[in-house]
Amino acid sequence: MFQENSTAAALDQMAAQTQAATSCDTSRRQFINHAGRGLLAVGVATALPLASAEAGDLGGLGLPAATGPLDVKLPSLSAPTDPKSEDPFNPDAPDRRVGFAIVGLGRLALTEILPAFGKSKHARPVALVSGDADKMSKVAQQYGIKASSCYSYQTYDNLKNNPEVEVIYIVLPNALHHEYTLRGARAGKHILCEKPMATSVKECEEMIAACQKAGKKLMIAYRIQYEPLNRMAQKAVREKTYGTTKLIQMMNCQNEAHDQQWRHKKALAGGGSLPDVGLYCLNTTRFLLGEEPTEVSAQIYSTPGDDRFKEIEENVSFTLRFPSGVISQCISGYGTFNAKSYAVHAETGTIKMDPAFSYNGLAQEREHAPGGKQTTEKPSNPGKDQFALEMDHMAECVRQNKTPYTPGEEGLQDQRIMEAIYQSAKENRPVKLTIGVGKTDAFRGTPPSEEAS
Ligand code: NDP
Prior knowledge:
By secondary structure, this protein is of the alpha/beta class.
């Protein structure tokens, strides 16, 4: 997997390029400093009331070094009767943020996770782990990561010697989550692990035990549980805004490319559409209700002769029954056009999310009939980055020593239920479940502070 012979040369080259970039940075900074001093000289200094030698100096600009929270406030741009204007973003200073190592530079890491650090307030990328040294060299330069903080899968355990890394974010194929969590915990780091947590209940239990033994946090990256529109839906369900919820329908389907390298291999993926996309239907139903299912019944069908589904399943239909009486019907597919939506049917209204599980562009509609008049409301999407929100939650849990909202136990419960779904389909009968039944949010930790408004 990793080309060791090319590593040393690539990392040397990275080190040289980083040095070059640093010296460029220095001259640019000097230029800006000089330009800044020029501006100060022509009178801008009068607009900086705190500038004094006693208050300390920031970057040679004659500015005071700020102490305490760095939050900057601005007066509102709009009248109180207009929509509220945006507050400043106010991120933590880089040296106060929690340092993350990203493991596996594939599609999710490069298209969503690394860019999301730009929207994060409390997290920053400080290390990379990859089997492709050339790719890692480019990505390290894009994100300003030191060559000395780039690791192969063989040198991964050396993360223990890197004090900048506090959290390891595992973005590898499903079957590798277990090994890299165990090694990461042994390296003394907190773990944020992509979904599905692993490929068996036993692996999930070992991951939880390893992090507990190391005294480190384990969070599963269930981004939907941190996304504002889904959190608004959860609030409406829990507060019974439309009365008692009775029925839920969820679907998460996509048409898979034929050249997927690992998603169609049972040994690396653990399963097909169920652990990859069907898991969203399962996890989101549990998240909305806060209940655990008492029974599941399922059917599975894969198109004969389709080379994608030789080892893993194509379509799964499963029905979850909950103690309150709610029935949730879920479907996942790997061979149909993209469809990612749900509808929560309550006594006096319906909450629809379509799309519900995409990275962006999520939309919610609520149908009800106040005063007997059929009405559709569309709450606006705050447009927050789901990955930034989940990473910030992990960072807050590390800084404030809190249990993540979606800890390892949450991933373990989904794995238990997925195994019951497979069993039900295989034996063509409903399978009973008991763990967590009767408790509210049985497996969740501290709710995220970045609440949907
Ligand atoms: P990719 O195939 O795009 O990337 C996986 C990366 O893992 C590869 O690029 C490679 O990185 C590394 N890797 C190490 N060993 C192997 C191996 N044996 N075979 C293949 N890749 C290997 O997958 P994704 O990024 O789409 O998915 C990664 C994880 O993220 C999965 O667990 C998936 O379920 C999850 N995911 C979560 C999503 C979410 O919304 N939360 C969405 C999409 C995926 P390198 O070349 O750097 O070594």
